[in-house]
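Bug report (template v2)

What were you trying to do?
Predict the complex of my protein with S-adenosylmethionine.

What happened?
Run completed; filing so the output is reviewed.

Input:
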Amino acid sequence: MSAKDNQKVYFGDKKVSKESKKDGVENIFTKVSENYDLMNDVMSFGMHRLWKKSFVETSQIEKDDICLDLAAGTGDIAKLISKKVKGKTIYLCDQNNEMIEKAKERSLDEGFYQKCNFNVSSAESLPYEDETFDKVFISFGFRNFSDKKGSLKEINRVLKKGGSLQILEFSAAQGKNFSKLYDFYSYNFIPKIGDFISGDHASYDYLVKSIRTHENQEEMLELFNQTGYLESTYENIFKGIVALHRGIK
Ligand SMILES: C[S@@+](CC[C@H](N)C(=O)[O-])C[C@H]1O[C@@H](n2cnc3c(N)ncnc32)[C@H](O)[C@@H]1O
């Protein structure tokens, strides 16, 4: 194991080894998978649907593109992509088997299974050949990765030259008063909603803390630049509660 592998990373508001973060994240998503979609709707007042729609709508997908929905969860992004591509050209990859099983069931129920390929694997070690994808999407998954720089390099490996990476993620809310209001809501209500809907206070406490310890907009941009992405940019959505970062290989 190299010194880099021994580096501590944030898991919620605690610094742990990369291995412990990976295990901790796995446990959380196994626990929340059952009520995951309902919780997203309740916590964000349905706004996550609009953010995701705009994420895919503005990504200039061509009908022949080969797309990776990484940290795919239950497949929200893959479903939106499926309306834009032809053929079996969408790859859903998530390290959590329960989430991928939910995505499979859901794609069958909602009629986009035939366009999808499914893989259980972590972003730090992707099961794809070099230069496979035109576009890689990550929606609300990146802050959970145990090796963010390593995964950005790994994604760069599987992107075609000229292909793009797009990351939608919670970020730093802008403006003092708005940030205070957002902090009040998230620290006081989100874990309680988690408790009420799924009897799980701890996982939603992790969610709130993981947002606060994740890189902010400029730090994310720096990560893109350090790992070989070109023309990297970001835009804030909903006063920076969410940010959309894009870069080209
Ligand atoms: C908050 S969910 C997001 C799911 C979906 N993309 C969405 O927007 O609703 C985060 C997902 O990231 C996955 N995940 C976390 N760390 C990962 C990693 N290192 N590699 C692959 N998937 C990971 C989790 O298993 C979980 O399904």
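What did the reviewer find?
The pocket of S-adenosylmethionine is lined by residues 25, 29, 71-73, 76-77, 94-96, 99, 122-124, 139-141, 144-145 (CB under 6 Å). The mean pLDDT is 94.
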